[in-house]
Amino acid sequence: DVKVTQSSRYLVKRTGEKVFLECVQDMDHENMFWYRQDPGLGLRLIYFSYDVKMKEKGDIPEGYSVSREKKERFSLILESASTNQTSMYLCASRGGGVYGYTFGSGTRLTVV
Amino acid sequence: DQQVKQNSPSLSVQEGRISILNCDYTNSMFDYFLWYKKYPAEGPTFLISISSIKDKNEDGRFTVFLNKSAKHLSLHIVPSQPGDSAVYFCAASVRNNDMRFGAGTRLTVKP
């Protein structure tokens, strides 16, 4: 089975800090995605990547950036964390001609 | 602007009865639809999918129906079990591109 691993389950950061959320997948998938999940809003797409060094903005990229230096790793960066970025962050990957995503377990980030 | 909408935030049913979860979409280009199930503190897991060339797909207790003219799909769970209690997300994509999700419906199945 494909495994998508997010490095932290829970994070607490201070306003203004630079925050890195790491995601690693082990099945050589080309596509990787970052979503945030908020009550009443569901999963909203932040950024995605279809290949190494490639990135595309999703629906809510403001305040975020990403890095994909290696195929298996897709990092989400909060340049200067703010309280409205408190959320559950979910990483997903897709590959092998399959439409569905495989999700990681999520990182619950609290910005204080 | 949400392209995929789940208008019922919650649903409660009795064990053994049918659960029907609904989803509407606005983008007529969507051609692949999926349902995901999410337990607390876990990532969503794939449940069932349907392509736009079909109007029904069945997998055990789970059936998804697609009505393209109404831009509506539904997930039927029969019979419902307490272990089905979770948040269910509807998702849609255009070909094999990035996916859009609904807000989710929390299903509670009471013993």
Count of DSSP H/I helices of chain B? 0
Helix content of chain B: under 10%
* Number of DSSP helical runs of chain A: 0
Rounded average pLDDT of chain B = 94
Largest sheet of chain B: 6 strands, mixed
Would you kindly provide a written description of the structure presented here, covering whatever features stand out?
Chain A is mainly beta and 112 residues long. Chain A has strands spanning 4-6, 10-13, 19-21, 23-25, 31-38, 42-49, 56-57, 64-70, 73-78, 87-94, 102-103, 107-111. In chain A, strands 2, 5, 6, 7, 10, 11 and 12 form a 7-stranded mixed sheet that branches. Chain A has a 3-stranded antiparallel sheet with strand order 3-9-8, with no helix packed on it. In chain A, strands 1-4 form a two-stranded antiparallel sheet. In chain A, strand 6 (42-49) and strand 7 (56-57) form a beta hairpin. By secondary structure, chain B is an all-beta fold. Chain B has a single domain, classed as Immunoglobulins (Immunoglobulin-like), CATH 2.60.40. Chain B contains no helices and 11 strands. In chain B, the strands form 2 sheets. In chain B, strands 2, 4, 5, 9, 10 and 11 form a 6-stranded mixed sheet that branches. In chain B, strand 9 and strand 10 form a beta hairpin. Chain B is globular. Classes of the chains: A mainly beta (112), B mainly beta (111). The A-B interface holds A 4, 9, 33, 35, 40-45, 48, 56, 58-59, 90, 92, 94, 99-106 and B 2, 4, 6, 9, 32, 34, 36, 41-46, 49, 89, 91, 93, 96, 98-104.
